[in-house]
């Protein structure tokens, strides 16, 4: 999108506001599909947690995507968006057995990541096929909070517990239709991913009735000019060759599945905020915007770096600014960033704001969550209204009859 397009969105819908470019989402989906075009059966299951707006899900459905979901609410959103139950996989962690059974009753694929529930579910529902999430004990990911395949992770069943899995499957006579792993986000080293894949192939040999192998995702996207990213084309060539070889030795054609989230929507997203104040201190020039980590928490939570541009003055002389929010604690989007000269009232654009941005927004400080806009075929389409005060108190119950303000004696003169 051009800065002028983004500026027109801010002028029409106000700031702060999230904007998503449907063309970029489509091109990323097609790029990933091309990379694995030599695999006869490929299934991309979009990770709903990255960006769960209903209109974005409908776009994914139109592209032929499936869905990877982690809560029963995401399952229901997917069904509402028109996905068939068989095109949705439920991959939760730490939820109740009742939630897993509720998802199974809706007809979606089930992915189980602990021995306790594997035995309980298999005993109660031996005819419902399940996928099993394996922890390959491989360290990957750009941050400890998003590395989920290492030995200390809460996710998946350890590869050292394969004998336990096989015993449960044998005793319950349950059906296993898939094997799954997810090592973490921001994969930089393809060889590490391929190493983990070999562990998954070795695990799959133990199960004779598989329909698919799910390799998770976590592909890194660039966050600034010259930034490194996962070489999808190289990974596609190497993993496709190995996968096709495995299928031949396995004796049947399986589906290669991924669950991309960030890869599909991160670069498609832009977050626009208005500059409230430019504040010069003894050491720093702050640009304070009408937002904070209540809207975009990734810089404070993960230490992520989002490129910040001034779309109100894109050709201006560059100066150094620390861009900060209005939350009443440390609330920094970027320190000492070189940005075209900023004036109060300018609109700043935070790039790579499509994944894990609005979905992690909150009402902290009793602030409203922003609007969301889809940029589609050259037009801005509102896909979520900005919240107002009624939204903030909608589910609160005012117990004013329980508390009475104390009577105050008049001040003695």
Gist?
The chain has 413 residues and is an alpha/beta fold.
Topology, element by element:
Elements: H1 3-13, E1 17-21, H2 22-35, E2 42-47, H3 54-63, E3 66-69, H4 72-80, E4 88-90, H5 97-105, E5 109-112, H6 115-124, E6 130-135, E7 157-158, H7 162-172, E8 176-180, H8 190-204, E9 212-214, H9 232-250, E10 255-258, H10 262-265, E11 269-280, E12 285-289, H11 298-302, E13 308-310, E14 318-324, E15 332-340, E16 347-351, E17 371-376, E18 379-384, H12 389-393
Parallel strand pairs: 1-17, 2-3, 2-10, 3-4, 4-5, 5-6, 6-7, 6-8, 8-9, 9-10, 12-14
Antiparallel strand pairs: 1-11, 11-12, 11-16, 13-16, 14-15, 17-18
Helix pairs in contact: 2-3, 2-9, 6-7, 8-9
Q: Termini, distance in Å?
A: 67 Å
CATH architecture of the largest domain: Alpha-Beta Barrel
Poorly predicted runs are: 141-150
User: What is the CA-based Rg, rounded?
Assistant: 24 Å
CATH class of the largest domain: Alpha Beta
CATH topology of the largest domain: TIM Barrel
Number of helices: 12
Question: Explain this structure to me?
Answer:
It is a single chain. With 413 residues, the protein is an alpha/beta fold. The protein has two domains: 22-264, Alanine racemase (TIM Barrel, Alpha-Beta Barrel); 269-387, Beta Barrel (Lyase, Ornithine Decarboxylase, Chain A, domain 1), CATH 2.40.37. It contains twelve helices and 18 strands. The strands form two sheets. Strands 1, 11, 12, 13, 14, 15, 16, 17 and 18 form a nine-stranded mixed sheet that branches. Strands 2-3-4-5-6-8-9-10 form an eight-stranded parallel beta barrel, surrounded by four helices. The longest helix is centred in the middle third of the chain and has 19 residues, at 232-250. It is globular. 41% of the residues are buried.
